[in-house]
Design a protein that fits this description.
The chain contains seven helices and 14 strands. The protein is an alpha/beta fold and 286 residues long. Strands 1-2-3-6-7-8 form a six-stranded mixed beta sheet, covered by helices on one side.
């Protein structure tokens, strides 16, 4: 059974949040939510998350799962906020422990911070299926951008996370800790081996040449036109391109606040003695 997909685009982080469901009144899942964060003031707000909540409530949907494709470096997840309003379980791929281990060291997190993924309600294994109403989701392990990336397949729709972008934008960077362009190439081939008509939903869009924002394409379109990964591009050519390109890219604006929150399943660090929560900025570490 193929799902209905509703996307919510956040222009501040170029991120798309998805609500996936069968019909009005059915169960649903939410993928890659956004909590807005101002790095200048340290303040958060819930404008996009509230739009998602309004849509879920208006369509009488029951939230079963709130899913992350990976520990994002460009936005903070709104998963705890959505869970408090809509219910559901928060899940991510089971390789998140590798990411937590790296960044616990970088941020020198408290000793009590566990690197076993236990902050999440559930850890998804490659090939694992979960059900929501009459629909089912299959988790696909697609590392490379990070060592813990997952894509999620629901019927004829696949939510690819940051493995790839729209055909005129290309593919994800691989220079974050644990990233690997060789691994990303193979992950993308895994996705692009699906039937040509498979619908692919991007986690981000960075539209060139003033084109409108788009975040849905197909396997056939990606194999024909992806500027980094169309058919005929051998692995070594992709690696050379990706390595050179990554060396020119700046770090995402929100990588330092986002990562240390997202590896906690969206919870902020424990309050300190004065009742305040603080995010750390490691110097010359990333």
């Amino acid at each position: 059974m193929n799902p209905v997909v509703k996307g919510f685009f956040d222009p501040e982080t170029w991120t798309v949040t998805y609500v996936v469901y069968e019909k009005t009144g059915s169960s649903c899942i939410i993928i890659d939510s956004v909590l807005s964060y101002d790095p200048k003031s340290g303040r958060t707000h819930t404008k996009l998350a509230d739009e998602v909540i309004q849509f879920v409530e208006k369509n009488h949907l029951k939230t079963e799962w709130i899913l992350e494709t990976h520990a994002h470096a460009d936005h903070i997840t709104a998963a705890p906020y959505l869970k408090s309003k809509l219910g559901g379980k928060v899940a991510i791929g089971d390789h998140i422990s590798a990411v937590q281990g790296v960044f616990k060291g970088i941020f020198n997190l408290e000793n009590s911070f566990s690197t076993d993924g236990s902050q999440f309600d559930h850890l998804l294994k490659d090939g694992e299926e979960i059900h929501f109403g009459d629909l089912s989701l299959k988790a696909l392990f697609v590392p490379g951008h990070t060592p813990a990336c997952m894509a999620y397949q629901v019927g004829n729709a696949v939510f690819v996370g940051d493995t790839m972008f729209m055909p005129d934008v290309g593919t994800a960077r691989c220079d974050f800790p644990g990233g690997d362009a060789h691994v990303l190439y193979r992950s993308m081939r895994k996705i692009l081996s699906l039937p040509p008509e498979t619908r692919l939903f991007m986690c981000h869009d960075y539209p060139p040449n003033e084109r409108p924002v788009q975040y849905e394409t197909t396997v056939a379109e990606q194999r024909k036109s992806n500027i980094h990964m169309h058919d005929g591009i051998p692995e070594e050519q992709f690696i050379e391109m990706r390595t050179k390109r990554d060396a020119t890219l700046e770090m995402p604006v929100l990588i330092l606040p986002a990562i240390q929150v997202n590896i906690r399943a969206g919870e902020f660090p424990p309050k300190e003695a004065n009742g305040m929560t603080y995010l750390k900025i490691p110097v010359n570490a990333v």
